[in-house]
C-alpha cells in the first residue's frame, strides 16, 4: 500500500469531542465496512506522526469518512478535530484489514457490540447494509458513558425507525438519560443475553472497543455458547 494525499471536504460534529471527517482521496480503490486506514501528518520540520482510524461508512467513490475522537494530549486527534481545515492535505494509506469485515452478500444475523468509539466500524456495517438493500437482521449493543457521548445519535434513532431488521440497545456506564430503566453499569452478561442473538441462530458477531472491553465481551459471548470462530474482534488502546 502506498500513501495517498487526501483533502478535507466536509465535517460533522458527533459529540463535544468527536467529529466525522469526509476526505476526498483521488483514485481510492474502495473498501469493505470494518476496514481502517492509517493517517499521517507531517510537520514543517519533517516530523511525522501516524494513527489508525476505522472507516465510518461504505465505499463511496473517491470519498471516505473517519470519525475522530479527540484524545487529551493526542497530537494527531487534536489536530484533526481542532486544526485541520477544509482543503488541507493529509496522507492516508489503506484500506487495511480483511478479517473484521462485513460483506453485503452475507445473510446470517449479525450482532454488533461497541464500546465507546468502537462503534465507528460497526456503523459502517449498518450503513453498508442499508445501502446494499441487505435484509440480514442486525442488533447493536452500544456501551457508552453518557447520552452526550453517543456517536451518530440522531442517525441511529432514524435508522431504528426506518430500517426494518435493525435494533439498537444502549448500556450507559456513567450517566443514563431520563426515563432509562436501571442504573448506569458496565456491560455484563445480562445485557448480552437480553439484547444479543441466541447462539442457536448462529449469528456472526463483531466486537470493537478498548482491549479490556473486547476481552470481557468475547468471554461472555463464548460463555453463552457462541463459537469463538464466529466472534470477530477489533480492539484499540493508548498510543505510545
Automatic annotation (TrEMBL):
Keywords: 2Fe-2S, Iron, Iron-sulfur, Metal-binding
SUPFAM superfamilies: Ferredoxin reductase-like, C-terminal NADP-linked domain, Riboflavin synthase domain-like
InterPro entries, A to Z: Cbr1-like_FAD-bd_dom (IPR008333), FAD-bd_FR_type (IPR017927), Flavoprot_Pyr_Nucl_cyt_Rdtase (IPR001709), FNR_nucleotide-bd (IPR039261), MRET (IPR050415), OxRdtase_FAD/NAD-bd (IPR001433), Riboflavin_synthase-like_b-brl (IPR017938)
Superkingdom field: Bacteria
Domain FAD-binding FR-type: 1-102
Protein name per its UniProtKB record: Ferredoxin-NADP reductase
Membrane-spanning ranges: none
Record bears the keyword Isomerase: no
Entry GO MF terms: 2 iron, 2 sulfur cluster binding; oxidoreductase activity
Cofactor(s) for this UniProt protein: FAD
Amino acid at each position: 500500500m502506498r500513501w495517498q494525499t487526501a483533502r478535507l471536504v466536509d465535517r460533522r460534529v458527533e459529540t463535544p469531542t468527536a467529529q466525522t471527517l469526509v476526505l476526498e482521496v483521488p483514485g481510492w480503490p474502495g473498501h469493505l465496512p470494518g476496514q481502517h486506514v492509517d493517517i499521517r501528518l507531517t510537520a514543517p520540520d519533517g516530523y511525522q506522526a501516524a494513527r489508525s482510524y476505522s472507516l465510518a461508512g461504505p465505499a463511496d467513490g473517491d470519498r471516505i469518512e473517519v470519525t475522530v475522537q479527540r484524545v487529551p494530549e493526542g497530537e494527531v486527534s487534536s489536530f484533526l478535530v481542532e486544526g485541520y481545515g477544509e482543503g488541507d492535505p493529509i496522507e492516508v494509506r489503506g484500506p487495511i484489514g480483511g478479517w473484521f469485515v462485513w460483506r453485503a452478500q452475507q445473510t446470517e444475523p449479525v450482532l454488533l457490540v461497541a464500546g465507546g468509539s468502537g462503534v465507528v466500524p460497526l456503523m459502517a456495517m449498518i450503513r453498508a447494509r442499508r445501502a446494499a438493500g441487505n435484509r440480514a437482521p442486525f442488533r447493536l449493543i452500544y456501551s457508552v458513558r453518557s447520552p452526550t457521548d453517543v456517536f451518530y445519535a440522531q442517525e441511529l434513532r432514524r435508522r431504528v425507525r426506518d430500517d426494518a431488521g435493525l435494533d439498537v440497545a444502549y448500556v450507559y456506564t456513567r450517566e443514563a438519560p431520563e426515563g432509562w430503566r436501571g442504573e448506569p453499569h458496565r456491560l455484563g452478561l445480562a445485557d448480552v443475553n437480553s439484547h444479543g442473538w441466541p447462539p442457536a441462530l448462529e449469528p456472526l458477531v463483531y466486537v470493537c472497543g478498548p482491549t479490556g472491553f473486547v476481552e470481557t465481551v468475547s468471554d461472555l459471548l463464548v460463555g453463552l455458547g457462541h463459537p469463538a470462530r464466529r466472534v470477530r474482534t477489533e480492539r484499540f488502546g493508548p498510543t505510545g
